[in-house]
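Human:
I keep going back and forth on a fold encoding question. Comparing notes only helps if you start from a blank page. Show me how you would write down a chain together with its backbone fold. Write it directly below this note and I will take it from there.

Assistant:
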Amino acid sequence: MRFSSRLDWASKPNRLAQLLGARRASGARILDLTESNPTRAGLDYDKRAILGPLTGEGLMLYRPHPAGLEKARRAVAGYYAARGYDVDPDRILLTAGTSEAYGFLFKLLADPGDEVLVPRPSYPLFDYLARLEGLRVRQYRLAYDHGWWLDVESVRTALSDRTRAIVTVNPNNPTGHFLKEDEQQALVAICAERGLALIVDEVFCDYALGAPRPRALSAVTIGEALSFTLNGLSKLAGLPQMKLAWIVVSGPPGLREDAVARLELIADTYLTVATPAQEAAAAWLAWAEHFRHRLRARLENNLAWLRSAFIATPAGVLECEGGWYAILRLPQTRSDEEWALELLRSEGVLTQPGYFYDLDQEACLVVSLLVEPETFQEGIRRLAARL
């Protein structure tokens, strides 16, 4: 039996996954500093506010629309209006998660064998999403020097005749780098000049950490090049199980409307967004404001604890402007994978080696700031003591 080459990637567990499985099978306690699921992070959810909207009569009617129900798209437009952005609901298309949104956009913009540019370091999911559409990934560079910055020249170097889109995450996962105005404008200029699309993933945009710093406006304001802004309830409201996300289409009139029409044709083929999530969208977005306030407090407190814990150690915490993650730079006495294995083996502390995210620097570990404070602090204490 021959399967598609799009699924031809290694399925054997890596060394860290093998050790983790063995430790869990033995009943050992694991201090998991990688938890990224908000529903398993001990956060306080208002069940009445979340489940209450799922009792309306509208849930019993199936009224499919390729772009999503108008009332849900208006709710998303209201989210942007509260931040000072005027977004017409007709520019919004709902999806069942941002992964599906990427799939739709890759179908829209590229043919098999074409290429998309993605940042390095970044979330490894892009490789899988692109390959499932028959596309190739090329990487451009985020560099670190007392803070992260976008290497625009590396974007130009990565371009080829098969490039169809540039993907950026704002703020980046796991570096926490927010695009600055000049960086975003450089990407827009490249896309306008080369006839490319810009895809901007803003799922962490409401989680700026620390004092306010200069950053680019939301990509929904872009008018010079065709662009697509992604966001959704998974991070915005800590509700990944509700499977509601969206694409906002921006750019020159005419081109923008053509893209919307083609996206609706793709969406009409699947019709994946559930009616209950659309009916509840407005209520969930309103509740999410309170959720984000509490979550930001946890993220900032964990980050402050992390920084203080490493003051008297040979390790450090790389600059982080936003998001849910932090990067630790450890002594280069061993690789990041060896550090992760050693910490799990000797201290019962689970972290992620930097190479998971294509971090070029040795030796880096990635930890989640979402973790419950008690677990986070104990894990960091053990890590610091080991150093």
